[in-house]
Amino acid sequence: MIRGTTALIAHIGFPTHAFKAPMIYNPYFEHAGIDAVVVPMGCRSEHYPDFLRAVFTLENIRGALITMPHKVSTVALLDEASPTVKIAGACNAVRRGVVATFFPGTPNEFRLMAVHLKSGCPAGPLTAPGRNCELLTRQVAPLEQWIEGEANAGHRFGVLGDFNRRFTIEKGGARDADGHQLNVYAEIDDGEPAASRLTNVTGMNKFKPCTTDSEYKEYIDNILLGRDLAKSIVKKSFVRVVFNDADAKTHWLSDHCPVGIELGLK
């Protein structure tokens, strides 16, 4: 049931008769008790830039799924683009706040980027054959550029999300003798400039699985903080919120569960 509290997710394209997302997401939202709905919206190309901006003026919009013919033209309309979007030159989902600024204009200001990197290359050298490792490799440079840009600008910053990479078991340096990328973390944490040096908050803490039968043995959701923001970490404040095994099975809970840290800002 749609209520006054229901969050809207626009599904924008043209024509709309072949849209499948509402048939997939809306039954799931209802089953899971999630107060949200995906709404098909048919918009022709000539009206799309103004329409997308107008949609995001709504207070109850949470994001938009973008399909043809708008995937390429969406990129130029974004305030911030993820590394994946920059590489692909196309965008199929828009949401508020890929980069969020907290306490703007105050001494406590800091910035966080949320990421979701390519899956299918969780460990081993990035030079391994296959499209998954190739795409992950291509995502590293834009991410490193953002980190270095934040450091050069004097911002306190962090990067967090689903890196789909086991940083704690990466071996060796950033690149091989021929300059090919081998590892993600060593590449983005090269310490140039000095303020870009990262602290892997999750990697500093003992792994705790989401459920007792989880297949994962290392964190893939990580919190990485730049040098200056890492100074604010409250000792022993790291948390991993785990699921009850029965709840996980009954409610089809994700194989990801929250990690968190407290910051003592000054």
Notes on the structure:
The chain starts with 6 loop residues before the first strand and ends in a 6-residue tail after the last strand. Strands 5-6-7-9-8 form a 5-stranded mixed β-sheet. Strands 2-1-3-4 form a 4-stranded mixed β-sheet. It has a two-stranded antiparallel sheet with strand order 10-11. The protein folds into 2 domains: about 1-95, Rossmann fold, CATH 3.40.50; about 95-265, Endonuclease/exonuclease/phosphatase (Deoxyribonuclease I, Chain A). β5 and β6 form a beta hairpin. It is an alpha/beta fold and about 270 residues long. The chain has helices at about 20-30, 50-55, 70-75, 85-90, 130-150, 185-190, 225-230, 245-250; strands at about 5-15, 35-40, 60-65, 95, 100, 110-115, 155-160, 200, 220-225, 240, 260. The mean pLDDT is about 90.
